[in-house]
Specification:
The structure holds two protein chains of two kinds.
Chain A lengths: L19 H14 L11 H15 L3 H10 L12 H13 L3 H40 L4 H15 L1 H18 L2 H26 L8 E8 L2 E8 H8 L3 H15 L5 H17 L4
Antiparallel strand pairs in A: 1-2
Helix pairs in contact in A: 1-2, 1-4, 2-4, 4-5, 4-7, 5-6, 5-8
Chain B lengths: L4 H19 L8 H12 L2 H14 L14 H12 L5 H39 L3 H9 L2 H18 L1 H10 L2 H13 L1 H11 L2 H16 L5 H24 L1
Helix pairs in contact in B: 1-2, 1-7, 2-3, 2-4, 3-4, 3-5, 4-5, 4-7, 5-6, 5-7, 5-9, 7-8
Classes of the chains: A mainly alpha, B mainly alpha.
Chain lengths: 284, 247
Amino acid sequence: MANTQVDQNQVLPEYGPVTPADIRRAAWRHNLTLQWSWNYERMQALGFMWSILPILQRISRTKEELIANMQRHMNFYNTNPAVGSPIIFGAACALEEKGQGEVADSLKIALMGPFAGIGDTIQAILLRPIVAVLAASLAMEGSWAGPLIMFLFGLAWFALKFPQVTWGYKQGVNLVTTVAGGALDKVTEAATIMGLIVVGGFIPSIMARVTTPIKYVREVTVDGQLTEKVVELQPALDSILPYMIPIVIVGFAYWLLKARRQSPIKALLWLTVLAFACSYLGIL
Amino acid sequence: MTYGIGIALLLGIIAYVAVVMNLGASCFWHEALIVGAVTGLIVGNVELGLMIGATLTLMSLGMWTYGGATIPDFMTGAILGTAFGALPGVGVEGGLAIAVPAALLMTQLDVLGRAITTLFIHGADKAVAEGNVRAVTWWHLLGQLPWGLTRFFPVFLAIWLGAEPVQNFINWMPEHIMKAMRVTGAVLPALGFALLLTMMPLKKYWPFALLGYILFAYLNVPMIGIALTAVAVGILYINLKEVRARG
């Protein structure tokens, strides 16, 4: 830590070495409540931050440090909560414990996209349909075993989150201990690059639903006959730049925050007003 | 014939718990099959609950909340379908005829619940800036309220009041407000992404974000493929940088 000369009175009571009990507590928080505060803006961010909070409290000597550490984890985060997020969470716990918060931040951004892809595929295409078809066919025959089997599978699925946290934690520790100081900068830079590539793909994929219904009718003469032709705007936009509207909106929000120095809450209001206006005018 | 307030409360609570379970431990507790069976037990017709729940679960195969998308709420549909289906003269078909439109209509309230929780994260931002750990904890834990209550109230009111007032309310709600809420829900992730980008060294590394966009938008590479490309590019970049540093 940069500031070693701290008045003893300012040291927070929770400051100290991370214990296995802290990790267990964090894992329970993550596995039970990750998405309780899920919201459109930053999705699982607050859930992740609150879950890792016991670790942040241990590593933060002063209140100022704790605030800075908490703020780092309030950024956008979203991935599959059952397969993937526990691994990321375990690794982030290890990195925070070893004072590598920036690596933890980059790792979260770099891994959330791919783990969402892998986790959602396993859960939505493999596990759930198989269990659902089996359970539903039993239930159709009037058997209680149907819902029971489904619930037991769900319970096992929940229990599997804990070994994932442990595995992620071990990987996180390995990353710190086996990689020497200078190399860690490289990992951070590589993770930043990976994160940006993933975010670049994430923006159009998550906001793909934002399209315009605008179309106009043009009268054209075909073979001497006057006919009406409906021209839609969205395909025209797509041929210029795919996902143009999501990019413009993200650009607008970025401009509000960065250039206009608006607070997130003001940016939220602007976006809401914009969405309502565009919806009312038939633009979106 | 309708149900008393006790049954209405109980079913409302089941809907609340189911949606909150889905946000955390899951255990498939929100699956139509399971809530259908439990509702059947409460209204005294387990077989009907199993039938309606199983039908709805099969209908929802392949539906998934990718990236936080809203999908039909078959959980709420199963509760309402089973409860109304168990009334005399309604049956499985009648129950399903209520369950499916209810599941579709609930998507509006899902959007509303997810949007209201956005206010909670701004409350949490404030608490974090003050270093108030207790307040942050409450903002997170109470984040379940908009989610749970947007299920509790429709189920409670529908079961308590019966089908007719529900129909009237739906007809009264103007379509353009529901549409505006859908649009807002689709637009708001932009703020999350913008916040994230302000934290990243975009000025120095922006071509990498562009690369990710090209992969998805022009080459239709799925997210896992983009992630693998990211790994390759990240490692290559570091290696080439080292080579250049050595001269």
